[in-house]
Amino acid sequence: MTALFNEHPHLGVECVLQELSIASSTYYRWRRAEKEPCERRRRDVELTGQIKEVHAESGGIYGSPRVHAMLKREGVHVGRKRVERLMREAGLAGLSPRRKGFTRRDPKSTLAPDLVNRDFTAQRPNRLWVTDLTMIPTAEGPLWLSAIRDAFSRRVVAWETSARADADLVLSSLEYALASREIEPGKLVHHADHGCQYTSIKLTTRLLRAGIEASMGSVGDSYDNALAENLWMLTKTECVRSRVFATRAEANLALFEYFDGFYNSRRIQRRLGYLSPIEFEEKHYAEQATAERVNLKPRQPSLTS
Question: Do residues 229 and 222 lie in contact, with contact meaning Cβ atoms separated by under 8 Å?
Fold first, then answer.
């Protein structure tokens, strides 16, 4: 309505309103709302700016639940439905994952038992690691990615890349994990699928020497290694997406920025109480240290009359 009068200033307001059967009070209320927006509208504008900032900092990854959680962490009090509405009005949305597997079974290999049975939970760090391989396409050729994920915190404890999807690749990611984590021999399960890289003599021997129990789901079944498959869905959706990497080095840098710069340290997860994997582990160790101090505190002698 205001635009109509701006485009045709020669038109009389009252006669136009009468022709359109609009009360003059309604028109002037519209004008006041444009010049002096109500508190809710001003708040919507302010919130939309904050939402856009959180969404941009996630690389366009977060949907409304995580955006809402991040705003809450920053002390912004807003309802989840309001965040959904404002994101929809601003044309913002999260990303949805896809999956694709790449491991192949060696029919002559000796298989480890399934010690997980689709229960991808752990009560503390370094009790269950899941691992898998995937391929990142580049113009230079395929870049193979091996990663190990801790079931407790969902942290990527190790990842390595190579131009070849062989046993050396999965072995190097295991060595990196062992160097960066403190494990207790006999307490850790290493779960993979039936891919030939995971049934290789090199890997199974190294697991045995480290006191790690090997476990395997079935090849081609995402549910039997669901936590590892979920990592690939996130990586392909949030890091690779529709990007075309010119070289393997370029793809490797993007993976480094994602895993080490974002996923482990900053990407919040609903199953972790909207904490990042590193934050979740730090919270666990802080609570463990507090509990140990309480248990070690000497008891005060009871007073008797």
Answer: yes
